[in-house]
Amino acid sequence: MTISPPILFVGAGPGAAEHLTLGALDALRAADVVVHDRLVGAEVLALIPEGTRRVDVGKEGFGPSTAQADIHAVLVAEGLAGRRVVRLKGGDPGIFARLDEEIEAITAAGLTFRILPGLTTASVAAAAIGQGLTQRGRNTGLRIVTGHVMEGFAEQDWKALARPGEVAAIYMAKRAARFLQGRLMMHGARPETPVTIVENAGRADQCIRAATLASLAASAAAATGPAILLLGLAPRAAIDALSQLSEAQA
Fold this sequence. Notes:
CATH topology of the largest domain: Methyltransferase, Cobalt-precorrin-4 Transmethylase, Domain 2
Strand order of the largest sheet: 3-2-4-1-5
CATH class of the largest domain: Alpha Beta
CATH architecture of the largest domain: 2-Layer Sandwich
Number of helices: 9
Distance between the termini: 79 Å
Number of domains: 2
Strand content: 15-25%
CATH superfamily of the largest domain: Tetrapyrrole methylase, C-terminal domain
Order of helices and strands: EHEHEHEHEHEEEHEHEEHEH
Radius of gyration: 20 Å
């Protein structure tokens, strides 16, 4: 009986090749087939050897998407054929990437797996604005939430998120920006709460939009690429500028 090699779930990071781990690079070089998401960056895809087969199973919010069942079928078929399969996911495979659903599908078919984690967009976006996701004396925790679920806009613990000093990385939230704004302010969040929108995090066309909760909806509407919202964080340059202004007015 032939034992199929494990399917590797690999995190590609938000897009730039410099955010790929060495383990991920080795996996791409050794793969027979790479099953990848739409948001995997072109720099990362360019590292896949020319002879390796690629299968694009991209999903787009509110747009054309590969059915999850079809993705499962591809992984199972390729795995049972004895091929070395890399399931390449944008960011980290364990954060809003349906990792558990795909693991359940392949293990039900008798296949094994390994997970190679990657840099999640929140980490790369925070680094881009010169901030830590946690800070002593400011936030004792970090919330990673999604703005959108299958049923529509996602409900959260709004009272907790609205507290001063809270920091949250909100994925898939562009279209939910006005909903988030309303819910947070309804639960007591201050209009001047900083919110930074990082579009195409880590890529050559990265765009950082410094906003407040009051201006969130308008700022998010201007973003055209995939974006993450960093609630409670402002770009370091903006903080420095505000500090200088306060000192000048003192």
